[in-house]
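Q: How would the structure tokens look for this protein?
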Amino acid sequence: MTELATRAQAFGLIAEGVAAGLSAPWRLYVARGCRYLSLSVGDRTEWDTWRTHLGCPELSVRVYDAGGEIRRSSVAEVVLDGCRITVELVEEVSTDDLDRLLVVDPTSVEPEER
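A: Here is the predicted structure in token form.
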């Protein structure tokens, strides 16, 4: 599909992905005029497969506090024929996960430093 001028074409893009074996997004948002399409997925594997399927070159990750819970939002984005398409995954993370982000390569730490 090279054009996303209508809502039917946007839904067709999602249907093609599902027909190719990808899990259906748990939430889909199509803006009026079909200039923005957002897919929300349930886990990291689904996020990876959708962003690969759509060829999303732009990736961003945001970590934030949501009322005492720490969440990580991973967003992959691509623009097809003037329509911005995003694939988003929101995960709850623990402080253990954040600690791992601070260490570049946990296997490179010397035994006496552990």
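The helical segments are 7-19, 44-54, 95-102.

The mean pLDDT is 82.

Upvote if useful.
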